[in-house]
Structures are given as structure tokens and as C-alpha cells.
Amino acid sequence: MTIEENAQRPTSNAERSIQKAFDQYVVPTYARFDLALERGEGSYVFDVNGRRYLDFGGGIAVCALGHANPEITQALVEQSRKLVHVSNLYYIEPQARLAKRIVDLIAPGRVFFCNSGAEANEGLFKLARKFGHDEDRYEIITALESFHGRTLAGIAATGQEKVKKGFEPMVAGFKQVPFNDLDAMRGAITKSTAAILIEAIQGESGITMATREYLLGLRKLCDEQNLLLLLDEVQAGHFRTGKFHSWQRILEDQDADFLPDGISMAKALGGGFPIGAFWAREKFAGLLSAGTHASTFGGTPLACAVALRILDVIERDALAENARQIGEFLLHGLRDLRRRNPNVVRDVRGLGLMIGIEFDSRFTGIETVKRLHEKNLLTIPAATSVVRLLPPLNLREEEARQGLCAIEEVIADLAEQEQREVRPKGVRRRNR
Ligand SMILES: *Cc1c(COP(=O)(O)O)cnc(C)c1O
Predict the structure, then answer these.
(1) What structural domains does the chain harbor?
(2) How remote is the CA of residue 287 from the centroid of ligand 1, in Å?
(3) CB under 6 Å to ligand 1: residues?
(4) Which of 176, 334, 350, 399 could bridge to 159 as Cys pair (CB 3.0-4.6 Å)?
(5) To test ligand 1's pocket by mutation, which of 30, 232, 234 has the most ligand atoms within 8 angstroms of CB?
(6) Are 332 and 405 in contact (CB under 8 A)?
(7) pLDDT in tens, 209-222
């Protein structure tokens, strides 16, 4: 099944035959756009017909250094000639180096390696269960509109009904409260509560940032009630916002005392090579002792070598600063478009290269993303009317400008449509 129902772009034979194979052989869990991508180069991807797109989706916040990055290729080739996999029965030198690197970027603690965001969160759930176990505390409170992955515990933790539907009964011990609402969180804590887990920037539901007060308040609450404060940085982390993690960007180092107890990572950590991880603060890191948790592929020499190279390049090329600057440039341009088209663009928000454009509710995110495909720009839909920009961290200003032009053209088209649809005064337009 494809998302594309009224495609402007003709579907080629090459695409049709790929789609046919999908229809026959691939479990239909994804609604896909009518696009088959074949190769990439930096911030661009090419479809099977050779048409070029500027990629502001970055494989959903994954491709930190863009596509076909020669330095990633080099790291893959060099390490795969030495050692791809050995298992965690043995010491793995690149895993040790990557763990140290991550600890240096956060604070004293330890790292566990896995393969995805959902798996990283599972690790945090087990850390919280172990932490509360002897006092019969097991409950983890999360936020409404959150997203924490698609495993059974992941959907129980996620604050969106649509991911849970049909998979009941939910894993016990999760409940949700409104985001950025300290009183709601305080009110939800019971004698069974062991931890609080939030995204410092909610991604899937449309880019909503935690306030500084919320983060500091949660820390205080967790200290008072002896709870673990866990942050899901799977999407917002890895320098996307201009700091390693988004909570570090939100606080801008002004609150040196703030530190979470656990943090999950994945997506851009491997720049497209699958790797996930969680960091646990030193005093809790020993909770998961030998034999209590494991992952066969966790922290392979290959995955760690790639992640290390990415961190090297980000540091060498000052890409955190680039994400911050190009992010500002995009936000500035988008806010200008919003000012000029207030009936089409309702809000523009984000930090660094994690940006949400909220359109009027008449324009769904999926429809707008498809219109942007026509202008050769890839973006990611979120919530109902939000379009997300999650481009590579090495995006150039010229590319950002080009993307803005495509967005401006689509906004102009939508504004024109809006004009045509204007109804007589007093008649409310219904949402589509
Ligand atoms: C993508 C995402 C996940 C799940 O990651 P997977 O690698 O798909 O399992 C979890 N949390 C957040 C915030 C995400 O954006």
C-alpha cells in the first residue's frame, strides 16, 4: 500500500516493479511514499529514475553526515577488513573507545550498546525495574504525545493511542501525563513509581521542546521522591540541536548541576549504520550486573568504528556549530514565511537542525510532504499537520537556501488554494 493516491509525478516501470515486489513479499507495516531511492551523495538522494532530491529528512534523523559519506565508507571498509563481529564474550577495543567518548560527552557513567532506539529504551526500562525492584517499585511515568519505540514495552511507554491499538493488553507499569506539566507529573507519582522518562524534544508528535523549568523541575522531583530521571535522546540527540544532547542545548550549560540518570541513543549515532546505546549515571550503572542484560550485536567492532569516525568528523568539522547556525538560518527563513502566510503556516519551532513546520490543520503533513516531493525536497511528516526537517549535520547554507525555496513554493501553492477555497464569512471551514 502506498501513501500516494493522487500522485502528480508519473510512476515509472522501475518503481512499479519494486512496488509490486513489496506488495507481494514485504509485511505491509509501512505506508510508503511513491518513491524508490537508489543512491545518495551528501545531502542529495537519487531515485531509480535518476531524479535528484535534496534530503531534509536524513532517513528520519539518522544520516548525520549525509549519504555515501566517503569517511564513513572508509571506516566501514577498514574495520571490516580487521573484524566485523566477535560477540560480547570478549573485550572489544572500539567499543571501549566509543563508550569513553560518549561518557566524555555527557558525564561520569557507563554505556550499554544495542542496535536501535527501542532496544536502548528497553535497557532503560530494565535499569528502572532493577532500581525499584527491592522496594516493589516498577512504574515508569512518560508523557502524552511521546514516542519510545515499537516493542511491547516501547508502545506501552509511548503516549499515543494509535501505536497501542490492537496490541493490548499493554505491558504493565507505564502511564502517561501531559508534557511540560510538572503538577501533572507530581500528581501521578505513586509508591510504585520507579522512574520518569521523557524526550527533551518530542519528535514524532511534531517537535515540542521541554522547557528549561520542566527539566529542572523533573530533576528536583526525582531527587525528592528517589526516582530515576530518564531521557530519550534517540531523535534529538547526537549534536542535531547544536549540543550532544538536546537537554544540554535547552539548558545551554547554565545549569551545571542538572544531570539525568539514564539516556537512550540510536538514530544518528551510527549515521545509518545500526547502533543504539544507553548511558547510565555512575551510581546506577552497576545495577545491570553480569548476566542481567545482553544483545548479540550490541557494540560490534564495525558499528563502534563507524560511530567513532562520525564523532571524529563532527568534532573536526565543527558540525555542532554548523547545525546550530544552519538551523538558525532555516528557522529565520521559515518564520519569515510564516509571517507572510499566517493562514497556511501556523507555527515554526525547533532547535538546530530539528525543525517542525506546523501547517494549518486543513493541510495534512503527508499531503504537504508529497507536494514538497514535487519540488524535489524530502521531508518527514509528523503529527497531523507538521512537516519535520531533520537534515544532515553538514548541510550547507546554499542547500538550506535551496530547501527554503522549495518550501516557499509549496506554501505559495497552498496559499493560492486557500484563497480559492475562501468561504463566505461565518461559515467555518471543516478540517479535511
Ligand atoms: C525513532 C525513535 C525511537 C525508536 O527508535 P528505533 O530505532 O526505531 O527503535 C525511540 N524514541 C524516539 C524519541 C525516536 O524518535
Answers:
(1) 3-62+318-421 (3.90.1150.10), 70-316 (3.40.640.10)
(2) 24
(3) 116-118, 121, 147-149, 199, 203-204, 232, 234-235, 266-267
(4) 176
(5) 234
(6) no
(7) 999 999 999 999 99
